[in-house]
């Protein structure tokens, strides 16, 4: 089973990038990488001053055994801010609450001033929370700028080819909330 098959069996369609787009990111974008073994899959972009974790999947058989924490600790050792997108809490989906608790337990905090909403192909809006961890005191304005980079360079990479549109124009999908 490919890393993409593993991701597509877990992540909702509206969150998962097109397989071709992901393969082109891995092949053609110098910052974008995938690492996997039998216990996990992680795709990420390693920029000079921050890391964006696009997808992190821990295999069901190893969940709760520290695998996800070990993966995050490996990234933390690089000494850069780490950013990721997390589904907002949903009382009807207890997995959302477990994911949030996992990231918070690992020192991530929600960027409460950043609103991030993308629309899928049929126009349905999907809001994600932006979480971050940093070895230094970093402002949420800085996180917002880094998320704009993620939108431009990762989410919009070859987007016209795969979706017929840019899917994450920063001025349209990111907003600062006071």
TrEMBL record:
Residues annotated as domain N-acetyltransferase: 1-137
Entry's Gene Ontology molecular function annotations: acyltransferase activity, transferring groups other than amino-acyl groups
The protein, known as: GNAT family N-acetyltransferase
